[in-house]
Amino acid sequence: MRVAASARAREGVRTPNDDFHDWFGALAERSYTRVERVPLDGLDGWETDPRTGNLRHHTGRFFTVEGLDVRIPGGPVPAWSQPIINQPEIGVLGILVKEFDGVLHCLMQAKVEPGNAGGLQISPTVQATRSNYTGVHGGRPVPYLDLFRDPGPRGPLVDVRQSEQGSAFHHKRNRNMVVEADGEVEVHEGFRWFTLGQLHRLLAERDLVNMDARTVLSCLPFAHAELARELGPPADPFRAALFRSCDPTAGSRHSLGSVLSWITEARTRTEVRAHRVPLAGLPGWHRTRDRVSHESGAFFDVIGVRVEARGREVAGWSQPMIEPHGTGVVAFLTRTLDGVLHVLMHARAEAGYMDVVELAPTVQCTPDSYAYLPESARPRFLDEVERAEPGRIRFQSVLSEEGGRFHHALNRYLIVDTDGGPGARADVPPDDPDYRWMTVHQLVELLRHSHYLNIQARSLVACLQSLLVPEEPAPTTERKVR
Amino acid sequence: MRVAASARAREGVRTPNDDFHDWFGALAERSYTRVERVPLDGLDGWETDPRTGNLRHHTGRFFTVEGLDVRIPGGPVPAWSQPIINQPEIGVLGILVKEFDGVLHCLMQAKVEPGNAGGLQISPTVQATRSNYTGVHGGRPVPYLDLFRDPGPRGPLVDVRQSEQGSAFHHKRNRNMVVEADGEVEVHEGFRWFTLGQLHRLLAERDLVNMDARTVLSCLPFAHAELARELGPPADPFRAALFRSCDPTAGSRHSLGSVLSWITEARTRTEVRAHRVPLAGLPGWHRTRDRVSHESGAFFDVIGVRVEARGREVAGWSQPMIEPHGTGVVAFLTRTLDGVLHVLMHARAEAGYMDVVELAPTVQCTPDSYAYLPESARPRFLDEVERAEPGRIRFQSVLSEEGGRFHHALNRYLIVDTDGGPGARADVPPDDPDYRWMTVHQLVELLRHSHYLNIQARSLVACLQSLLVPEEPAPTTERKVR
Predict the structure, then answer these.
(1) A448–B153 CB contact, under 8 Å
(2) 8 Å CB contact of A161 and B257
(3) Cβ contact, residue pair A257, B175, below 8 Å
(4) Count of CB atoms within 10 A of residue A32's CB?
(5) Where are the domains of chain B?
(6) The whole model's pTM is what?
(7) Residue of A281, A365, A406, B413 with fewest CB within 10 Å of its CB?
(8) A125, A200, A218, A136: which is closest to A443 by C-alpha?
């Protein structure tokens, strides 16, 4: 399967670039969605537990909104309370791939989620909760799901459970899968074949490729090395260092064994005590008719929405959502060490993680929130990102988090090169307890396993992948209907 | 560091084989331990929670004995209740290594634990609970622990958290470490340098190398490949296939990606609902003066012991322990596929695991218990192990589980070759949901990460390692004092 050809192709064998926006615009017109805010007590099918104040669906399925009491002794904020989404079921995020004329294509879906700021987004072939495939919500069957339930004798190309936002979810994970289609595939309305090159170009567009697509793309195991081999070393030093970083035989500041030991140390040293508690009476949080919010006005609110949709499996429903305050910053700082690009990873504890700490981007925060937190909680390296000269910003795009649970959760994703020049102040000693410079091939190796890279880091790995291919004129970026 | 030389050497550079039993026997004489059964109400420092009936230390430290309500829908036994040890702290199991004349040596300790059937056992350099290093039990400092707290700039050779028995512990893990000493090391009383070859020979002796030593040895990352390279292909076909199995470039029935997908599928499909509940009133279990036991008389009892010890950090203490009924069987079936030895691994759910399922030996059970369980619960492949012709049994030794929590928990560890002949009936289809044939290098790769191989499988990996080296006359097996 020629992944490199897939990344390089100016357009797909099956789908030209030119008509993408026509296709997408036409779908956007047809897939009408109306999202209306409703009081938390007026959510059809949802109820407030009289004892705990938790929000739950009357079937007991989907998810609940509860309280969480968090203690991280020695952390920047050692104790707090917050609402949390409890959704223990493991869903499937799957991309179906197929070779046409030797070029890998991904079957993607243009899909609306109620929390999407722009409506339609490019999504994986399948986004299915366990409720989806047991059919508990009474909707239509999810197209292509059977191909992921039974991926055939060769098995999936990618199949790994990865975490989602540990700041909003208690132990939420999804199964990230890539499956190669064996025979003919009928392309249903709303679906389209894309090459990796086409998806990478769309990643740079504002709020277009959804979170679920980004995490699955980041787990594709073969893309980096094969691309590096087929495309040859580029002239641009940054991109040349990125190519070398994808080569598993290239050097790295720390061996993988040493990185694993660093993670073990962080997970042993850090103590996260997170206990689910009633949402009612959660210290610092107040419920009004329309929302649960923090007394400071910061962080996020729990809101209620009523959704009417066309082009979805269910025509109308209500649900609680998380509405963050302010746009976040999610950034990789990079540096070339001995000719090999390294990324500065942060061992980050979040209350909802399965295993204490995951590797996060160098910076991951919502700057607005820091007005309400102690100065000591201000993220390291945020200055390096906010003050970066434009020439150092190798990637920048505003992308959103999952629109099925988050309402308009936008983050500015950046990749900032710190090499040389006056802005290159960011560095850490080799034994810094919280940060390590790592190569791309080390990240790729860890992505074969669960719970090493957090969801924000996985998004940025997909963005980093997109920089492997030489820049070329972007397709018309005007989108007819959003 | 010459691991192979370490495995090959008939005796250590520092310590001849001949005087091992003198050394060990003399220590056994001096390290007097008396273990006396006492009523559960008469455990100094321990109390029964009046509300829950749980057993706990008055300081709130060490561990508690609680109840667990377990549901595994679709499992061989879909629901049960049992007592469980809750010990969430992560301790350290560490082996200090050092090269003498180019030969790797491991500093091991002859250590008594109250549950050891034979008294002294060969243990890692350090076995420290978190209570040990915070000094909560008021004992003497643990020798060499500082070398594991701060392993120096090169970092540890092994550093990975691994699970312990999921049938007895709730989420218990230890940090397995191997650290290379930088300078001179003073050898304290009770400690001694061993080559890997010496340890491997001792592994075949009954109840001598303790569980903690076995798990740390199994995680040594370089042993297999280097041994295979230096020792060259042996004449014996089984050992030749084992050598090839250690070579990461050798073929395997399933790719590592396919194995990881199988584990993901098992962990997604299997639902383990385990809830801690009060020990008092646990269905099917009764507390008498001396024990908590199952109404059938099967499985295990919770007992109380009072320990008087010399050669330990604390001279006397009391504690609850788990006393299993009957000797267990823990076995790998092996088969040579395309010239490469494969081991049949079982994706096994245990109630106390962090992550649903771990890879277990082909057979892991206590045959006596099956009198009390439905016929459908009888383990697959137990017959193949119990009826194996003596020539097929490549390894057999009775070894015990951790003597700090288990009282006389003995298991018969076996490696049974199923190749050719009438006994070679064991096979599984390639898509069997519960079993996979795997190579040694695949097991070694997974051992870099947490929670893939269970404690019994790790013990057997250490035993498998010991078969790499040609058999030679064992040292005198008579042990002067046990």
Answers:
(1) no
(2) no
(3) no
(4) 12
(5) 2-465
(6) 0.94
(7) A281
(8) A218
